[in-house]
Every structure is written in C-alpha cells, then in structure tokens.
TrEMBL record:
Subcellular location field: Cytoplasm
HAMAP family reported for this sequence: SelA
Catalysed reactions listed for this entry: L-seryl-tRNA(Sec) + selenophosphate + H(+) = L-selenocysteinyl-tRNA(Sec) + phosphate
Positions of modified residues (N6-(pyridoxal phosphate)lysine): 290
The keyword Lyase belongs to this UniProt entry's keyword annotation: no
Protein's GO biological process: conversion of seryl-tRNAsec to selenocys-tRNAsec; selenocysteine incorporation
Protein's name according to its UniProt entry: L-seryl-tRNA(Sec) selenium transferase
One Gene Ontology molecular-function label: L-seryl-tRNA(Sec) selenium transferase activity
Organism in which the protein naturally occurs: Irregularibacter muris
Pathway stated in the Swiss-Prot or TrEMBL entry: Aminoacyl-tRNA biosynthesis; selenocysteinyl-tRNA(Sec) biosynthesis; selenocysteinyl-tRNA(Sec) from L-seryl-tRNA(Sec) (bacterial route): step 1/1
Enzyme Commission identifier(s): 2.9.1.1
InterPro entries on file: PyrdxlP-dep_Trfase, PyrdxlP-dep_Trfase_major, SelA-like, SelA_trans, SelA_trans_N_dom
Family in the record: Belongs to the SelA family.
C-alpha cells in the first residue's frame, strides 16, 4: 500500500513546498511520513488490515503538517488566558511595546555595549544602567547579572565565602526550579547559621549567633509563602542596626523588586526596593522579570564597597548578562524614570491594577465576539472569578476578575483545553468544573482575534 518517495515527490501538490524549503528537507519529511505509516500498519491485526486504506490524500496532509511544524519556532508567543499575571512557564513578564525599537536596534546593529563614546576607549557594559538603578532605588552603586538566583550566589560568594551567614528559620525559602537558600549558601561557600523558630525570630536570636566567624546577616523575602498567626520577623531596619553594631554587612534578597507602591492600588504591601535601601541595607538583590516587568535579570544594589567586591569576583563574569537583556532592562527602567503613567506602560503593572469595570467590559466584548462568530457551537457566559499574581509573588493575593466561560456540546472540557493549547498560536486557559475559563485580565491587545480564529477552527472539526 505504501507509495515510494519518488512517486510522491513528482506529484504536483508537492511543488508548493519548494518555495519554502529545500529538496533535502522535503525528501526527509516524506520518508518520515512513510515510516510512520509503515509502523502504523505493522501493528494492525489481520482483521484491521483488511479494512485499512492508506490514501494519498492522507499522506499529503501529513507531509504538509510536518513541513509546517519544521518551520515553526518552538519558542513562540502564546495567549495567556490563565489569569496568572507572572506565569513563570509562559515567560513571566511580557515587555512593554515601547521598548521594541531600542531592543531591536541594539540586537541587529553594533552597539556601545563596552565602549565609551567620549574617550573611544573600552567601557563597561554595566555603565549604561548603573546610574539609572541608583537614581531609581537610592543606592550608591549597582550591578546586574543573569537572574536573582545568580545575584544571591554572587553576593554570598563575594562577601561571605568561608564565613557564617545568619538567616532566620522562617526565611529558608525555596523558589521553583531548585533555588533553595540553604543550597545556594552551600554553593557559594558560605556557612548557613539558622536562628529563631519557623514562626518567630527575634533580633536577640541573630545577636546571640554572631561570632568572630560571622560574615554577614541575611534577610530573605518570603515571596511565595506566608507564615500567619503567632509570628514575628526582624525588620530590615533592625537588622541594619545590628550589622552596624558588629561591623557586619546586612544583606537582603527582596525577590520581586517592586519600584512602585502597589498597595495604593489595593494590592497587598510588598517592600519596595527604595524602602529597603532607605532602611540602610548594605546590599539588596531582586529579579528583573517579576514585579518590575522587565527581562530576566538579577539586580544588585547597595553600598559601593560591597558592589565593587562583586564586580571584581570571577563569578560576575560567568553570570554576566547579554546585550539584549541590558537593552531591554535599560529601556524598561527608563519608563520608571519618566514616572508618568508607569502603571499603564508596564504591561504586568497594568494587568495587576486594571479596575473591575474595565475587566467586565473586556469580558463582555470577548463574549459578544464569540457569540457573533461561533455562538451556535458553544455555551458562552461571563462569570466572576479570581486571578493570581504568580511568579512567586503575593501568594495570598486573590484578584477579583471576570472570565468568559466556554462549554461545547461536541467536546469534553479536557478536549477543548487541548485543542486551544495546540492551536498554532497556543491558548492557555483554566479549567473549572466543566468549563473552560478565559481570564481577560492577562489578555493582550489582539488576543481576542486569535481566540476567535481558534474557536472557528475547532467548531469546524
Ligand atoms: C524569585 C526569587 C528568587 C529567584 O529569582 P530568579 O530571578 O528567578 O532567579 C530568589 N529569591 C527570592 C526571594 C525570589 O522571590
């Protein structure tokens, strides 16, 4: 039953593929498709064989699909209808549209990456961004590495290798992807000294643990969990004071790194980087792609004498960020520098602070569009629900939102979820009971059209 490669390659339907790819790729793809058919046939019973029909149409369709798949980027844009704003698996923060040109100019042309245009001599890649970070946070000096995990590792290696670092037992954080404070500490060559209890740590616990081997005092923001009830943690101010008394650097990993006061928009309070610096901390580290809304990066800010030690450390070279990240980060921070409408211009801040009426309107618009185009094939409703901040930030925050819920008489909820997820521009949704939920909070401009296209395709299946 199986045709030969030659037979297929001479068919007129194959001609069109030569516009997009090479002869070699086409032949390889035909071989793969034929091999798949051979394997399918081998596993059929005699009875199944007698009813089996391998049509040329089916083969050609598979060839089309395979060749398209080969051309499609594996890493590509998707629609996030989950309502999880900082979805780590979907790339955390989408960048602001405004920074597009700055990013592409640096990416596609030569740049001032390590060149001082005033002297014509070699410059530092960090010079572009250091003063900007200092201006925004109030720090004396700053450095940027690949991510916050690298920032914490570098900070501990440079400042406390072969020394003891005191941390509260309530702050031995694990972040997804095997970042654990005790293990990072071990890698950096510093020895962890745990103090206090899980729920309560007092300043005297830190003080009692200080010895001549102590290298630093560390605070870690419990970004992705909260200990509630009978609790106490030492404040940044108190830790700073203790550090000063014993001439020890006070360090803090604040995790998300917010630069704006989100509490004034009704979200729970997260310590801002500025307030941590103002409290007198010697070094603070935070992520670029969490609540800051920039690219993946680890930002280190603080006293010059400590930042200088990190700049000179060999790990700094291993953790250094590339020009694309630098361009995206500088452009994002410039939005903060202008202050005007930061909340509107940084996509994740816009999503987190969007008001309920607007969410309701967005949900109504999507619902109407679905009903207008494919209404006969789905049951469509607007319902209230909750979105999440995600990205290991504000774990208790429940953001009231509106979702469009979908049901199909033809497909189960799991089938519908899979079909949407496997659309050419994948759509990620939530399943709740027997419904697919599309949370409009995390939808970006133009996403509605893609959702309609996908539903159109699905209803024609
Ligand atoms: C997220 C987080 C990290 C890890 O940051 P990445 O930028 O993902 O490497 C470290 N510490 C805390 C407290 C965090 O919240």
């Amino acid at each position: 039953m199986i045709p030969s490669v030659d037979e297929i390659i001479s068919l007129p339907q194959i001609k069109k593929h030569y516009e997009n790819t090479t002869h070699h790729n086409i032949v390889e793809c035909i071989r793969n498709v034929l091999e798949d058919s051979r394997r399918e046939i081998i596993h059929l019973s005699d009875e199944q064989i007698s009813q089996y029909h391998l049509s040329m149409e089916k083969i050609l369709l598979k060839i089309d699909e395979k060749l398209i798949e080969k051309r499609t980027m594996s890493l590509r844009s998707v629609i996030n209808a989950t309502g999880v704003v900082l979805h780590t698996n979907l790339g955390r923060s989408p960048l602001s549209e405004e920074i597009k040109d700055a990013l592409w100019a640096v990416a596609s042309e030569y740049s001032t990456l390590e060149m001082d245009v005033n002297t014509g001599k070699r410059g530092s890649r960090y010079s572009h961004i250091e003063s900007l970070i200092c201006e925004l946070t109030g720090a004396e000096s700053a450095l940027v590495v690949n991510n916050n995990a690298a920032a914490v590792t570098l900070m501990l290696s440079a400042l406390a290798k072969d020394k003891e670092v005191i941390v509260s037992r309530g702050e031995l954080v694990e972040i997804g992807g095997s970042f654990r404070i005790p293990e990072v500490m071990e890698q950096s060559g510093a020895a962890l000294v745990e103090v206090g209890a899980t729920n309560k740590t007092h300043l005297r616990d830190y003080e009692k643990a200080i010895t001549e081997n102590t290298g630093a005092l560390l605070k870690v923001h419990t970004s992705n969990y909260r200990i509630l009830g009978f609790t106490q943690l030492v404040s940044t101010e108190e830790l700073v004071k203790l550090g000063k008394k014993y001439h020890l650097p006070s360090l803090e990993d604040v995790g998300s790194g917010v630069l704006v006061d989100l509490a004034s928009y009704g979200l729970s309070h997260e310590p801002s980087v500025q307030s941590t610096i103002a409290a007198g901390i010697d070094v603070v580290t935070f992520s670029g792609d969490k609540l800051l809304g920039g690219p993946q990066a680890g930002i280190i800010a603080g006293k010059k004498e400590y930042i200088d030690q990190m700049k000179r450390h060999p790990l700094n070279r291993a953790f250094r960020i590339d020009k694309l990240t630098l361009a995206a980060l500088e452009a994002t921070l410039k939005i903060y520098q202008e202050e005007e409408n930061v909340i509107k211009r940084i996509p994740i801040l816009r999503m987190l602070t969007i008001d309920k009426d607007e969410l309701y309107q967005k949900a109504q618009v999507l619902k109407e569009e679905i009903i207008r185009t494919v209404g006969k094939d789905f049951t469509v409703k607007v319902e209230q629900s909750f979105s999440q901040v995600g990205g290991g930030a504000m774990p208790l925050e429940q953001l009231p939102t509106y979702v469009v819920s979908l049901q199909s008489p033809k497909f189960t909820v799991n089938q519908l979820e899979e079909k949407l997820r496997r659309f050419k521009r994948p759509i990620f949704t939530r399943i709740h009971k027997e419904n697919i939920l599309l949370d409009v909070r995390t939808l970006l401009e133009g996403d509605n059209k893609n959702i309609i296209d996908a539903l159109n395709l699905i209803s024609n299946q």
